[in-house]
Amino acid sequence: MKKTQTNQRPKTARLLVWLGVAVLLVLAGGSLAWAQSSSGNEMTNPGQERKAQKKEMANSQKETVLEKKAENKQTIEEKKAQLEEKKAQLEERACERIENRIRTRINRYENNQQKDRNVFGGMVERLEKLIAVLEARELDTADLEDDLAILKEKVANLDQLHQDFIDSLKETQQYACGQSEGQFKSKLGESRKVISEVKEAIQDIRQFYAGTIRTHLLQIRNQWQEQMMNQQEEQEGQEDEDVNESSEESSEDENQEATEAATENVQ
Prior knowledge:
Elements: H1 2-136, H2 142-172, H3 181-266
């Protein structure tokens, strides 16, 4: 028994020694791991700082880009507003030019209307006076009287077309330029149609005068010349009769004087 106990004590001692060594190794391993961990953290901190710096720079660049975009957007909006304002100014100036042009055209065509009234109205008056003179001379004026009625109708139609054109131009002024562009162009198109009718009416009057009235005037002139020739022939014939009567009277006077002289001689 004593030998057994004596043998077990060294074994227990050795176990205790081994346990102590194991505890020391465990403790040493933990310290080493902690040291390595601390060292690793110290080594990774610079990388994290660089990442943070890069992230900060990226955010800063992003903010800069956003600011530039906002500035560009504002600049674009300002330029757009400037363009809109410039466009409005150009449209206003264009409208002013159009309105001034319309006023000028109205004044010009009012003057043209008055000129045509003077020209063709004077033509009517002269023809009326001529017909009165020809009637007083007992010439046939039936054709000229018909021409006069037609001419008056044509001149009145021309004057009305003039007035329609001027009124249509004035109507375009009531439409705001740029706001009622469709109606403005429509009225302007109607005005152009009317002015073409005015030109056709003027040409028609000229052709009527040159072709019809002038022909009848030449006929009247020939008629008057024939009448004058007949009157001259009648006058010459009357003068011949007067001369013959005067000659006969002279002969009778001479015969009477001769008879009286012969009687005296006989006595």
